[in-house]
Fold each of these.
Amino acid sequence: MPAHPPSALPISLRGISVEVAGTTLIRELSLDVGGGEVLGLLGPNGSGKSTALRCVYRAMRPTAGAVLLDGESLSEQSIRDTARRIAALTQDSRAELDFTVEEVVALGRYPHQNGSARLTGRERELCREALRRMDITHLATRSVLTLSGGERQRVLMARALVQEPAVLVLDEPTNHLDVRHQIELLGFLRRCGLTVLVALHDLNLAAATCDRIAVLRSGALVACGTPAEVLTTGLVRSVFGVDATVVTHPRTGVLQLLYDMPTADRPIETDSPTTPEGIAP
Amino acid sequence: MRTDASPDLRLFAEIEGAGRRAGSLVLPLIGLTVALALSVAAGIALGPTVVPLGEVLRFLGKALTGGEIRADEVTGYSIVWQVRTPRVLLAAVVGAGLAVIGVAVQALVRNALADPFVLGISSGASVGAAAVVVFGLFAGLGVLALSVAAFLGALVATVLVYFAARSAMGLTPLRLVLTGVALAYAFQALMSVLVFLSPNGQAAQTVLFWLLGSLGAATWASLPMALVGVIVAVIVLMYLGTAMDVLSMGDETAASLGIDAAGLRRWLFALTAVVTGLLVAVSGSIGFVGLVLPHVVRMMVGSGHRRVLAVAPLAGAVFLVWVDVLARTLVPPEELPLGVITALIGVPVFLVVMRRRGYAFGGR
């Protein structure tokens, strides 16, 4: 085990396609995320964000193409080797058993352990530090089944940190979080110095957090660039089917989208672009 | 061996009040070991004829050291050594095995309501056993015919469930449970037909008794295979303990922590199938132990699989030894099926403990 966490590593998706039971979920998706960069993945429901992330944290194998971590293809390393360098906050993390918070967080050391489940002194310190950073030290001995959704999300985030990853993959991490914890989490992603690949639904939070933004639609990349380059009225209209006005935050200068709410005389149009048209069965 | 006792006592938290889940396991393990030794001795002593404990220990000593016994002691000696000792030991082994396999199956299908029989394995074994009773299959094997047929039935069922449940996504928990339950119904139907069409009037009763579980046929010969199976299961599962913790968090989380959930599940399935087959072959289908014991143990020591697996075999062994004692002594000279007693004791105890504050399983 390295004495220090590996520094942020670049990760690349090279033309990955995912097909499940004859349905194409992702088609020839290519993305490059530099070391220490925060890349946001946006797109309507079902656009393939989660599928792309699954390929990165090895819950899915791309049908074609490769995911490269620091230039090395993930498919050529063990799933455990990947877990030592890529940590993920997934969507399926619903525990059935009443583990305590510290038990769940300690599992983040699993990929680094050999046989023994005993934590070393350094690992204990790592776990305590993760609890402090996620502001959940007071919950350490609570059952995870008794936590609120937001508390649980922070527990899982702490577990990901304990993995000492070089890359963090997060699938809608702000789900269930209140505004303060949303902002704290995303602020943390900016400061943590890791390479971050994060799927988000909130375009404004994405604009404020991400160095670059990639937009998916029907499993294909439609735009990639800085928030200002990508989040235009036209793109938001065509990808999300929402009319928005782009303004800049008066103090921070960060791009903000103001959405037009549908009204009786201006309903959302029915040719919703979220339907996966153009996908060959 | 580690010198520092329990698998993981307090993990890393600095705050106090970790309570039941973080305490040392040393005392519970010592307590349960002593309880098991006493239970085995009591189990040998108790029965339609009560053998005084001193006699029991003396006979056991003689049997183990090869000492001489007097002619007037032969009856007592053979009751203790030939009849009760193998039976009580088998009760302990089967109880330990069912508890451990219960833990494994609940992790395997990620469902707290699963037990070793939810995968259809025991129903397959029942078909094998019924075939022996009704058709006199494997008559050449003598008393072992029932066990061998039951084990083969269990293996056939396992293979059927495995291939029926397999999909492009691997062996998913829900498909496993659904397939197991569906095939269990099919096997039960098949067995009912066998019994119904049987020209042998005794068949129905024999099959029913076997279905509800019994250690009445226990001999020294039925011990070794079950014992080896249970020991292997405990060792392998202890080794996989932390991986099972991770598996219970969901397949995607497991992947992100470096575990191939589908692969781990295949191994767990194979292990539980073989060991369940071995247990069912010697004791029939004893329900509730595999469902209830894992929960009772979790309530005592928390959900970490290593901790649960350290305690569950001892707890299961003690439990089933006493269940068997009750089965033999409640309505002498008749014997009650074990499944009846495990249900009568297990269900109320389970409901009471479950309703206690502070234990949540399967979500709230």
Amino acid sequence: MSAGEPVDVVLVDDHHMFRTGVKASLDDGVRVVGEADTVDTAIELVRRVRPPVVLLDVHLPGGDGGGGAEVLRACADLQGEVRFLALSVSDASEDVVAVIRAGARGYVTKAIDGAALSDAVRRVAGGDAVFSPRLAGFVLDAFGAAAGDVATGDDELDRLSAREREVMRLIARGYSYREVAAELFISVKTVETHVSAVLRKLQLSSRHELTRWAAARRLL
Amino acid sequence: MTTTAGPASPFGAASRLPLRRPEQGRWVGGVAAGLAAHVGLPVRLLRVAFVVLAPLGGVGVFLYGFWWVTVPAGDPLEAAVDARPSALARLSRRQADAAPARRWPVTDVAVGALLVALAAVLVAGRAGRLDLDWVLPAFVVLAGVGLAWSQLDAAQRGRLRRRAGGRTPVSVLRLLGGVILAAVGVLLLVGQGSGRGVATDDLLQTVVASLAVLAGVALVLTPWWLRLVRELGDERAARARESERADIAAHLHDSVLQTLALIRARADDPAEVARMARAQERELREWLYDDRPAPGTSLVAALRGIVAEVEDSRSGPDGDPVAIETVVVGDRAPDADTEALLQATREALVNAVVHGRPPVSLYLEVGPSEVEVYVRDHGDGFDVDAIEPDRFGVRESIVGRVHRRGGEASVVCRPGRGTEVHLRVPVGPGEESAGAAGRAHDDEKEPPA
């Protein structure tokens, strides 16, 4: 995919300096086709341009004060065509869970380097989920996986399967998808499938901790 | 394990929210929504419970009304955040949510219910089953009390006050109206009871009448007095928090400005600049995005301290500072076992930073019966068995420490995939975690509802 057409990206962040930095650090496989700096301009731009990927800051001024999650909700009907990758300087759990549950396909912190970010953009454009070690840690925490609370069936939304837990732990330990695949003797594609399944659970689960937390933050 | 998460997960830590009536997601007065957030039950369940309890002698209605007037309105989560000592709370504003408030047309419903009740009373009166002379005064008293108590609805009061900029004539009007209505109602009632009119020569009747008026007035004035008491406490607490907050802001500005000045002065030394920037970033991040636990209650806080120390004092093989990507799952109170684990972790981190190759990752997982640590770097690693006995570092300070606590330590090196040190120490269950301790503390401070 990286050899083909560059991926078009809309960049949403309220700091001009940061947007400039991101644009400079992205490699040739990613092309920035638009920029926005508030909730309202972001919604307008995304609806007009309909890029395959939007790099979305979590904390944004404007709109009703809902930040990135508000943009996600306003563009909910575009999901599938436009994919969102959340980008934030914050690594607080509520910020992460808010945008993921609103529909973002991944979450990376702004400390990420250009190559890794470009790679994450391509991954999201290809329909995969992007989990940073920290997001994997949150998932393990929220799903009680550290306490051995593991699903027995595939269709359970409220718990991780043993394999998903294993994948999440390796990502939390700093393994790349490729390294996870090698460690577990599975293909990279399978790792991506597991990660996407976890993302789906994170978005749809009515697990006690997630819903109570989300309800308290009025995300449901 | 059931659905209860690790005792001090970031989700569990904020679990016991104070009792407030949230403005968003309320149907009538927000009592069910607030109660649901407080006890952690689904809102639907509580709403059903209120409805089911309503016909049972009006228990549901009474409870609902009681909580409506006594529980202050507000966002439970914001209240929980405010309840934390601000020196320990994160500074960054939490995200507001744009979801529109869903409300029932309360006024329409109330007017409808009132009309239905009146119709029922009239029908009953026509049928001769009910003495209208008693019912109408009772209605007047009820209306007066309702009017007066409704001023306790703090949300409305706050909104009105903000708009009016100071004293609200509306609340005064409400109080006056309530008093007058209640007094008229009580007089009518008493007059009814005494036969013909209020003025009779029966002394007992007069005493009863005046007592009734006094009781009515007290009933009407109580919410006003309650409100005064509550406001006084709130204002005092708010002022204390404000000054604490100012201290923190001053501290932050000082440290950030000083670091920036230092960075400008040392601009020709990239390694030193990177180190200072990293240290400042860490400090700022901690102040902005984390709730800081009280000292000595959190294993995670102790671990972060060790990471900070290693990042600040050690450099990589080529002299560059190395950032340690830290991920933690769960938390607990530190004890002797985890202390040994932390010391071993520190040695492993130093080893990874000094002899390994970045990026360095650290993962800590607190399980119910053991604590695990993984330290990973991208260097070529080393073979534990091949270490000469005189190299005390790894063998004694990492492996030995953990073994003495009944744990395990292993080092895995894979060509091209770096080195990973895995430490595992068994811990006893039932220790109170930092999160649980914090919660118990919060509960203490809650006013008895």
